[in-house]
Amino acid sequence: MKEVGEKKLSKIVLYFFLIVSALLSVFPFYWMYVIGSNSTNAINKFPPAVIPGTSFADNAAKVFERIDFFGALLNSFIISGAVTLSVLFFCSLAGFAFSKLQFKGRDGLFIFLLATMMIPPQLGLIPNFMIISELGWLDDLRAVIVPAMVTAFGVFWMRQYISSSVPFELIEAARIDGCSNFRTYWNIVLPAVRPGLATLGIFTFMGTWNDFLWPLVVLKDRSVHTIQIALRTLNDVYYTDYSMILSGTFMATLPILVVFLIFNRQFIAGITEGAVKD
């Protein structure tokens, strides 16, 4: 009976911890909606409003009047989707090569790749801008998509994941059956590493969606603004309508939540791969 009581107590503590953690995680989104559904005057009062108001539709209408919200949302979708697909393809292909193929200089190239992860991305801002300017891609979505098509972290992640998830015996069996390297990658490796791809895809989509600095540098025309840059233009010089800004921010956050919910199961499988041993 004592052991049963201890197990129940441990479950109660565990569920209590999970509930508190979930509430703390959801609270920023709730508070964002509370501010976005009230007026700025109500937020500035003390104590501030802590329950949703009835002004969300009015604040959202102000956002639509000030910026091309859906146009910026579409630009962010195009950029984030294109970058995510290219990162998944090229990084998984490179990860397959680094983990399962033997070629001269493989380990040295991989170490060099890892070394690039220690370089702050801000150092490449000016050289990248000069290259984009020479190509004539300023105010073009390609200026944001092309430099982000492959990432060192993505290659490292897929290399480690493929190394642990795809045994060499499976690769050798495919070669005996006459599969080329690309067909082995496409038909054997990719289906086996879908959780890893989903995890990398979510990280890449969220990172690209929230990217602000580089799009701000190369996208000056309002017609190609991403949602993050468009929301920035809601700030006035002398007055900041926090309710309007937070209502737009809340709406811009919803697509990320939808993407995470769609790939939630694959994401959890990817980050817990190898946590349980037979």
Automatic annotation (TrEMBL):
Name a biological process GO annotation. Answer: transmembrane transport
Transmembrane parts of this sequence: 12-33, 77-98, 110-129, 141-158, 185-206, 242-263
Question: Per its UniProt record, what InterPro entries does this chain match?
Answer: MetI-like, MetI-like_sf
Please state what the protein is called: Cellobiose transport system permease protein
Query: For this UniProt entry, what is the primary localization, expressed as one broad class?
Result: membrane
Family statement: Belongs to the binding-protein-dependent transport system permease family.
Membrane topology for this entry? Multi-pass membrane protein
Domain ABC transmembrane type-1: from-to ranges? 73-263
- Which organism does this record belong to? Evansella caseinilytica
PANTHER family (UniProt xref): ABC TRANSPORTER PERMEASE PROTEIN MG189-RELATED, ABC TRANSPORTER PERMEASE PROTEIN MG189-RELATED-RELATED
**Keywords of the record:** Cell membrane, Membrane, Transmembrane, Transmembrane helix, Transport
The subcellular localization recorded is: Cell membrane
